[in-house]
Amino acid sequence: MQSTEEVVESLRLALRGAGVVLPSLGVDPVTGAGDEPFALVELGRCNVRVAERLASVVRGERPPLGTYVTDVRDGRIGEVRGHVGGSVQVRPVVGGREWDCPPESLEPAPPEEVLRAQVRRVNRARRLPC
Q1: Per-block average pLDDT, block size 10, for the chain (130 residues)?
Q2: Whole-number Å distance between alpha carbons of 88 and 116
C-alpha cells in the first residue's frame, strides 16, 4: 500500500494529465499528525472553472470542458463549453459564435496556436473604436 503522500502525488499527476489542477491538494495536517496509519487527503478549494473541468473529467466527457481544441475540418481553435446530444459545443478563442462539432473531429489545440489566437483577440479589441 502506498503512503498518503505517494497517493496525493499520484492523484496530482493524474489530475494534471486530465487538465485539472487543485491548488490546495495535499495531506490533511490534522489526521497526518495522528496515530492512524493513513491520513486523509485534503482536496482543498478551487475556482468554479476548475470545478467545472473536474466534473467534466469525472463524467468521462471527451474532450473535457475548458480544454482548447482544433476542429480538424476547418482548423478553427476554440474552448470546449459543453456536450449536447453527441456534439461538442466549442467557443472560438478569437471570439464569435459557438459551433457544434462531432467529437471525432476535434484534437487538442497546440498551446502556441491557442496563444496566437488569444493575442489576435486582444489586438482586435484594442483596434475597435470606443
Answers
A1: 87 91 91 77 91 91 94 97 95 94 96 94 79
A2: 23
